Amino acid sequence: MRVELSTTYLGMELRHPIVAGASPLTGNLDSLRRLEQAGVSAVVLPSLFEEQIVQTELQLDALYEYYAGTFAESLTYFPELREYNTGPRDYLKLLKLAKRSLSVPVIASLNGSSPGGWVRFAKQLEDAGADAIELNVYFVPTDPRMSSEEVERRYADLVAFVKNAVSVPVAVKIGAQFSSLCHFARQLADSGADGLVMFNRYLEPDINLNSLQITPHLVLSTRNELRLPLRWIGILRDQTSMSLAASSGIHFPEDAVKLILVGADICMMTSALFKHGVEYVTEMVREVENWLEINDYVSIEQAKGSMSYSNCPDSGQLERANYMKAITSYTPMR
């Protein structure tokens, strides 16, 4: 008996929960086609950054002002700025090509931190065919006068701005460092978010001791990072109607199974595909199905959330994560 693997994410019916998360692998048409051939049920394009959009618009404004000051009649050759597509064209081109070439849903990604005119680019993504938008909010609050409430309001305002601009579903990719994650999730839902992606792996800087400069340091995820989304998806599953996507530490089929059991609608993979190749998707899907069949599940929906906070035999294990037992039983390696 075959297991029914279909799942629903952001209102989209997907063949199974294994999705290609945003990464360089989803940044060109050839690898997108390979990912589809390997069996992913959806793809998330790499993020388009607020800075890219703002910089492009500033360059156009500067050009416009230069000609205005040089010879005014030249302005008759310029389109009105409000009619001019000042967004990064390459991203829109990739999105349109992906939509024409792939049969799986294509999710566009916007990365920003502040409300502003760049948010209107979300509408251009929708017009280019995006099935949904992933709002990747990257904001490091360094002002000691900014309260946690203000930080959360900033996220919520961004969600509201984007939702007002588009009609397609919007998921918010967040970090785990919030003082009350359940309350924050409710705020995002109230602002219109259709889903949460858990969690964002923030770029952590390093120092080059030779040049004494701050350098970016990006490393692939490890399986140890699975435990944060495992806990919080399990807690949030019964508290929200938003879609929940896991995006950290998913390296093996059993990792995906665990996340489904606590309530994840989909599992976004990136690092494992870099390590094993895009063809690894085929094995992931097959082994997830095998586990469900061996354990007498007839569908993903039956398994989904069966080990969530409300359904877990001991929900305290999700809250305290066996804290005392783990600490008291730890034995250092010799």
Tertiary shape? globular
Can you list the strand order of the major beta sheet? 3-12-11-8-7-6-5-4
The CATH topology is given as TIM Barrel
Q: Find the structural class using helix and strand composition.
A: alpha/beta
Portion of residues within helices: 40-55%
Assign the CATH class: Alpha Beta
Ranges with pLDDT <50 over ≥5 residues?
56-87
Describe the 3D structure.
41% of the residues lie in helices and 16% in strands. Mean pLDDT is 87; it is low at 56-87. The strands form three sheets. Strands 3-12-11-8-7-6-5-4 form an eight-stranded parallel beta sheet. The protein has one domain (7-329): TIM Barrel (Alpha-Beta Barrel), CATH 3.20.20.70. The chain has 334 residues and is of the alpha/beta class. Helix 5 (148-165) runs parallel beside helix 6 (181-190) and helix 7 (227-236) packs parallel to helix 8 (253-262).
